[in-house]
Amino acid sequence: MKNTEIAGTVSWECPSNIAIVKYWGKHGRQLPRNTSVSLTLSEAKTRTSVSYQVKEEKGVSIDFLFEGVTNEAFSAKIKKFLSSIVEEMPFIQSYHLQISSQNTFPHSSGIASSASAMAALVMCLCDIERIGKGESSIDFNRASYFARLGSGSASRSVLPHVATWGQHADIEGSSDLYAIEINDVDDVFKGFHDDILIISSEEKSVSSTAGHALMDHNPYAEARYRQAQKNTSLLLQAMKEGDLEAFGQIAEDEAMTLHALMMCSDPSYVLMKPHTLKAIEEIRSYRKMTSHPVYFTLDAGPNIHLLYPDHIAHDIAPWIEMALKPLCVDGRIIRDTVGIGPKNIADA
Ligand code: DP6
After folding, report:
1. SS3 call for 135
2. pLDDT band (50, 70, 90) for residue 112
């Protein structure tokens, strides 16, 4: 047996992503009800290291530190996830895994971290598997497949720039099992900005996982899934052509639909806050007044993701400071941009 198979450490950092066409509703073993499309971010990241040590008894065995301290809730979640994939990744049972993870974004920012966290963990697992098999590179379809089993949106975080998850008639190679990169995209989107306005940093009242489950009995579900397939086609066309107006219209339509679905589920719930609506009004009226292509999206929470191309960043900066910053908790805005995906930080 080679040394690398007895013990070692791997470290990866993985970014979060923001969906433009939203994944909302799932079935079976973490399969999406519709196709989703996202931008991979670069600043909001999780860094994870996994040290592995061969052990005699078979079974899933981990220690988990989050930001340097033990975290029972996360640890139980990871253990459950690892147990669910041991048949497909049998090496997990032969090692004791010491996992340590940290986020680059503030803990209390209300930013969903399951995508970056699961993606970073899976990159580490795929790397250990690669080393054991003596292979030279990681299979990204496989990485995305496992990331999906950890959290649906994580499937898209292992890919650069623009990713899509879920089978779609117009997208060759698309699959419900893993995400793929969309290459045919105008360069304007590669440097796109996503300023995350922290409207509230409180924990969400309803988790995404619970929200997905409520789609099973939502009376508008079927129409929604059809809309997402159509919006995916329109969005990819807009991104190919660099059509910012069409891109922005779809982004906002998807965000409002997502929150409308929450409001009309049973039980109904609302995750937007008064300042979320104020920011939306502000963004729409500024756009009307100036014709600047600045748009918003929302994930399953109250925070606004302000989307705009790099070439207007300088011009709109004073407006962001003056009109949007006061709507944020302690004036907090996380400035992010589209990025290149996971990075091996073993030697950092
Ligand atoms: C609104 O991926 O967090 O952000 O698969 O249950 O872990 P699980 O859900 P999750 O849902 C994300 C929902 C969303 C839209 C999206 O990212 O596509």
Report:
1. coil
2. low
Pairing of strands 31-32, 26-27: antiparallel
* 331 CA distance to ligand 1 middle (Å): 26
Tally of CA atoms within 13 A in the half-sphere of 151 that contains its CB: 24
Between CA 239 and CA 249, with CA 245 as vertex, the angle to 5 degrees is: 95
Q: CB of 207 closer than 6 A to ligand 1?
A: no
Residue 300 CA: nearest ligand 1 atom is 1
The C-alpha atoms of residue 129 and residue 262 are separated, in whole angstroms, by 40
Torsion of CA 178, 184, 186, 192, to 10 degrees: 10
Q: What is the pLDDT of residues 189-247, one digit of tens each?
A: 999 999 999 999 887 788 898 999 999 999 999 999 999 999 999 999 999 999 999 99
What does DSSP say about strands 343-344 and 7-21: parallel, antiparallel, or unpaired? antiparallel
Measured between alpha carbons, how far is residue 170 from residues 173, 195, 286, 321 in Å?
10, 30, 35, 41
| Whether residue 300 has its Cβ less than 6 Å from ligand 1 | yes
* CA–CA distances in Å: residue 146 to residues 60, 142, 274: 16, 6, 38
Structure tokens of 299?
A: 């994930």
